[in-house]
Structures are given as structure tokens and as C-alpha cells.
Amino acid sequence: MARQPTLEFWYEFASAYSYLAASRIEAAAQEAGVAVRWRPFLLGPLFASQGWTTSPFNLYPAKGRNMWRDMERCAASQGLPPVTKPDPFPQNSLNAVRVAVYGQDQDWLVPFSKAVFATSYAGGKSIAEPAAVIAILDSLGLDGTQVLKAAALDANKTKLRVAIEEARSRGIYGAPTFLADDGELFWGNDRLEQALAWAAGDRPPGLR
Length: 208
Hints:
By secondary structure, the chain is of the alpha+beta class. It has helices at about 15-30, 45-50, 55-60, 60-75, 95-100, 110-120, 130-140, 145-150, 155-170, 190-200; strands spanning about 5-10, 35-40, 175-180, 185.
């Protein structure tokens, strides 16, 4: 029996378009016959290496204004609640990302990730403070306090640093990013379908 192709989904909780991708990738991947590997990471260090101190949507106001309008359109078309712009944007996602990295091999990673995104972009609430992350974990039936403590241990911090360096080494520069088994990289929520098709072996003529 042939192995099911896999698409890596690299996402950041501070990334607005990662929210949209996280909300639809499972259904789209199932339809395409592709497995998804969720890969949480931090964008900040990658932005810093490019000389950016904040999101490019803040650095370029016209781009930012259009992005938020685009978010409204996309959320409506996906049947999601109206988008709320986090204040401040981008949010400090360190605690939430540490927890996601800690839970990378756990069955609660995907529900937790979706809940963090929904809290930020649908609920308009902060995800930065430890108490906010604990509340999300508790709502999933986990011991939020203990999970957050474990996520803050040096071993898990090292895992996060390794993930960031892996992202850098594989050419990732933004989120969401999708990587096929052969390393082909697709960036942006609007490239999800192309990424899934590529992963499934359906590729444009002349591109192999």
C-alpha cells in the first residue's frame, strides 16, 4: 500500500492568514487525500533577520489596511465569525507557541491551535498572557497550569529554537507556509490548494 503524501503546515499564532488556513486545512487535505503535519513556530526571529521589527502589514500601512479587509472577505466566505483585529497586532505568541511545540505529538495540538486562533481573531481576546493560554488549555480538559510549566522548561525551549532554525534552513520566510514531501514550498493561505495538489502528485506540465 502506497504511503499517504504529507503536507507540512507551518503556522504562527500571530499570523492572521495562518488563522484562515488552520480553519480549513483539515477538510481540504482530506478531500485531496493528503495527511497534514502541523508545525508551530515563531516568525519574529525570521523577521528580525530581515531587519523587520514588526509585521510587514504594520510596516506598510496601505498593505495592512487591505489585508484586514481581505481577512474580512475570506472569513465570511469560509463561514467564520467576523474577524477582530487583535490589539496590539501582532500579538505576543511566545507562550502559546511553546505550548504548541510541547504538544506537537499530542492529540490536543490541533484543537489547541484552533482555539488559540479563534480566541485571537474571532474572540478579540489576548493570547499573550500565561493566564490566557492556561484558560484555553483548561477549556480543552487539560491541566493548563502544568502544561504551561512543562512548555517553559529548557528542553522545550530548545525544541522551539530548533524549529525556528529548521524553518530558516528550509527557506521559510512567512506564515502560513506549506511544505510538500519533496521540499516544494508554498506561502500563503491562498496557496493551500496548490500545495495539496502538489503533495498529491498533481503538478503542472513541465514542473516535476
